[in-house]
Amino acid sequence: MRRPMVAGNWKMNGDKALVQQLLGHFKSNIRAENADVVIFAPYPFLYQAEELLSASGIEWGAQNFYIEASGAFTGEVSLGMLKEFGCKYALVGHSERRTLFGETDEMCAAKVKAALGAGVIPVLCVGETLEQRESGVTEDVVGQQVKAVLELVGAEGIGQSVIAYEPVWAIGTGKTATPQQAQDVHAYIRKVVAEQNAEVAEKIQILYGGSVNASTAEELFAMTDIDGGLVGGASLKADDFVTICKAAE
Ligand code: 13P
């Protein structure tokens, strides 16, 4: 049995007051006993996350990082810095980073490797665009995104990571993939990993992301290969995120 996980990706949203309010609410209402719960906060709020979530059972992490340990990389943040603020997880290759900031499969693979080396659990995001889905290449695209990482870190490396399937057309659009559409891709991702190592494939947590909300979470999480969700907009709504976590538990 895989342990479910629900992660909230706040993206570039929030302010000190909202962070205080949301994290206070999550701490009082989410037990995180039967599921891993993680909040991906913007960098400036990681200090607050550490202050407010320590000993709550809820984990926190960063939405990005740079692969080098230190040096002349103006504007970048290292994994060592994230660890100092208690980050257990970090997102890698979110579609917004791939499209808006030019992150390639190779860069994502290097980031997964760097995170594993630093002892931070990478949550590798993969997913196809609407155009790719409509032209029937979803498996090729997602398969390649996963294989690029497998080639660099092997099944052992992937086995220490989390994968999030986020179809680009479902992100922030209100258009959730149907449970069956998501299940099909999750099963395919597991198959790609199983070609390298069946045991790792069976154990790895694969989350679905893309317009998950309080009313769609339960049916998505009920699918065999869906182990939870990576939630954007609804993770900024206190009660909705709690409901989604309960659906996973
Ligand atoms: P939404 O839940 O807002 O569609 O965002 C999904 C996402 O990108 C999470 O990483």
Automatic annotation (TrEMBL):
<dbReference type="InterPro" id="IPR035990">
    <property type="entry name" value="TIM_sf"/>
</dbReference>
<keyword id="KW-0413">Isomerase</keyword>
<keyword id="KW-0312">Gluconeogenesis</keyword>
<dbReference type="Pfam" id="PF00121">
    <property type="entry name" value="TIM"/>
</dbReference>
<comment type="subunit">
    <text>Homodimer.</text>
</comment>
<dbReference type="InterPro" id="IPR013785">
    <property type="entry name" value="Aldolase_TIM"/>
</dbReference>
<feature type="binding site">
    <location>
        <begin position="9"/>
        <end position="11"/>
    </location>
    <ligand>
        <name>substrate</name>
    </ligand>
</feature>
<dbReference type="GO" id="GO:0006094">
    <property type="term" value="P:gluconeogenesis"/>
</dbReference>
<feature type="active site" description="Proton acceptor">
    <location>
        <position position="166"/>
    </location>
</feature>
<keyword id="KW-0324">Glycolysis</keyword>
<protein>
    <recommendedName>
        <fullName>Triosephosphate isomerase</fullName>
        <ecNumber>5.3.1.1</ecNumber>
    </recommendedName>
</protein>
<feature type="active site" description="Electrophile">
    <location>
        <position position="94"/>
    </location>
</feature>
<dbReference type="GO" id="GO:0005829">
    <property type="term" value="C:cytosol"/>
</dbReference>
<dbReference type="InterPro" id="IPR020861">
    <property type="entry name" value="Triosephosphate_isomerase_AS"/>
</dbReference>
<feature type="binding site">
    <location>
        <position position="211"/>
    </location>
    <ligand>
        <name>substrate</name>
    </ligand>
</feature>
<feature type="binding site">
    <location>
        <begin position="232"/>
        <end position="233"/>
    </location>
    <ligand>
        <name>substrate</name>
    </ligand>
</feature>
<comment type="function">
    <text>Involved in the gluconeogenesis. Catalyzes stereospecifically the conversion of dihydroxyacetone phosphate (DHAP) to D-glyceraldehyde-3-phosphate (G3P).</text>
</comment>
<comment type="pathway">
    <text>Carbohydrate biosynthesis; gluconeogenesis.</text>
</comment>
<dbReference type="GO" id="GO:0019563">
    <property type="term" value="P:glycerol catabolic process"/>
</dbReference>
<dbReference type="GO" id="GO:0004807">
    <property type="term" value="F:triose-phosphate isomerase activity"/>
</dbReference>
<dbReference type="GO" id="GO:0006096">
    <property type="term" value="P:glycolytic process"/>
</dbReference>
<dbReference type="InterPro" id="IPR022896">
    <property type="entry name" value="TrioseP_Isoase_bac/euk"/>
</dbReference>
<dbReference type="GO" id="GO:0046166">
    <property type="term" value="P:glyceraldehyde-3-phosphate biosynthetic process"/>
</dbReference>
<dbReference type="InterPro" id="IPR000652">
    <property type="entry name" value="Triosephosphate_isomerase"/>
</dbReference>
<keyword id="KW-0963">Cytoplasm</keyword>
<comment type="similarity">
    <text>Belongs to the triosephosphate isomerase family.</text>
</comment>
<feature type="binding site">
    <location>
        <position position="172"/>
    </location>
    <ligand>
        <name>substrate</name>
    </ligand>
</feature>
<comment type="pathway">
    <text>Carbohydrate metabolism; erythritol degradation.</text>
</comment>
